[in-house]
Amino acid sequence: MSFLTHVNLFCFFASFAVAFGLEWTRLVKLNTLNRAIILVFGCAGFVAQTAYLLNRSGQTNLPPLLSSNHDWLLVLAWLCILIYLFVSCIDRNLPIGLFILPVVLVLIASAWFVSAAPNPRVAFDPSEVKNVVRNWAMLHATLLVFGNGGMLVAFVLSMMYLVQHRRLKHKQPGHEGLAFPNLERLARWNRWSVIISVPLLTLGMATGVGLALYTRDNGPTLNLSDPVILVDGVVWLLMVGLFAWLVKTERPPARQIAWLTLWSCAFVIVTMIGLQVLAGGVHPAFESWRS
Question: Which of 85, 178, 216, 268 has the maximum number of C-beta atoms within 10 A of its C-beta?
Fold first, then answer.
């Protein structure tokens, strides 16, 4: 459909913002009508975002994961929306939208401030290394996006656990449209999200360093003293520490896991977005608006 070729960031950002606003109606009452309206706006935003990423891929002749930091953030948001829609379809009372949609909106809003210029490490193309670089870069970007996606899921689960724990502790009445899983299940899901995502992040960082070393004689060189790389290393060490504690401790307190996961993942989210903005520069659309 031709109109999908003109989709911009605001189209799907607005759809998800409306869906998030409508999610709050479940605090009053969740019925078939407002649930259907929420899903319509969520699906409309998902289709628009998919079309935007496909259009960007056609313009850059690169997969969205490789084309730019701008597109990489949007792929991460797209993955979160896919999880949101899937869970909403199989469990209409689980209030996942109240927790994951704000993360999606932050990712999309952040992408607005990030440059959409092609990644220089993938953009250069000496014919003898082009295919190797593309394949390894794709593996690197895929591991990172799934690792960070797992961290975002852990962040959402930890928030849900703490909200449910507080509600039960204070014996607050439940809402018809807010049916949380029991605390034991939330804690188990939260723990496994961290255990699975940290190795993915580790492999993603390892392939990134390997790619940088492989291309040092042909493309942009890797500066290990770069503040972006140093902060990335600190974030990785923090998550590895959390991972080691979860694996080593036989039965760690579930509430403590939730708080540690919440703060750790919040730090990851803030630094990840901040580093993308600092490393990628400003998106041309924002630059023109600012001037």
Answer: 268
